[in-house]
């Protein structure tokens, strides 16, 4: 603990139980109408090249060794996010769900933005990282290329140890109680502890992926 930091009890948080980071999820186009069909990505966004019609999810939160990472909330479909976009020749559409997490998962002094969706229209062969860069500026990375912030959130910190605020803490009381999908590894069979570290690796996106930005549409 740094000099001047409040003890964990005073801040309403227990000792660290996981790591605060952006996890990466996806749904196959055929499953996009099912809000529970999120699965933990087994390939990082820097190398995954989504097909037209893919739904990608990025969720900020605290991943624990016992339960993995929280899934993105909401039941947005590819049609609801991207139907009004028409790709040009040599382009493809990718729907993105951006879930900034709950107040209880937020770094001290920060308030998460509401969940958002965006339709990225990118060149054929573009990576998921390029799709994210086209709709979610400003992005922030650490020196190793780990994705730290989407649309500027959070303003500081990257992959640090943390724990979810207890339900009776002021931070948790700000939450509306609707956590959406539950915790877990997203059905990919990766155990919680391994899944946590794999999740951190999965969001290690190179900043160079910001090249080749496509058109964007926010909802």
Give an account of the 3D structure.
The model is unreliable at 1-13 and 167-217 (pLDDT under 50). This protein has one domain (12-173, 182-218). It has helices at residues 8-11, 78-82, 128-135, 170-173, 192-202; strands spanning 18-27, 39-40, 54-64, 69-70, 91-99, 116-123, 140-141, 147-149, 161-162, 183-184, 215-218. It contains five helices and eleven strands; from the N terminus they run αββββαββαβββαβαβ. Strands 1, 2, 3, 5, 6, 9 and 11 form a seven-stranded mixed sheet that branches. A two-stranded antiparallel ribbon has the order 4-10. A two-stranded antiparallel sheet has the order 7-8. The chain starts with 7 loop residues before the first helix and ends with a strand. The longest helix has 11 residues, at 192-202. Helix content is 15%, strand content 25%.
Strand content: 25-35%
How does the major sheet shape up? 7 strands, mixed
Overall morphology: globular
Give me the secondary-structure category. alpha+beta
Tell me the number of structural domains. 1
Q: Helix-strand pattern, N to C?
A: HEEEEHEEHEEEHEHE
Mean pLDDT: 73
The Cα radius of gyration reads 17 Å
| Low-confidence runs of at least 5 consecutive residues | 1-13, 167-217
Number of helices: 5
Task: Kindly state the percentage of residues in helix.
Answer: 10-25%
Transmembrane segments: 195-212
Keywords: Membrane, Transmembrane, Transmembrane helix
Biased composition (Acidic residues): 170-179
Protein name: MYXO-CTERM domain-containing protein
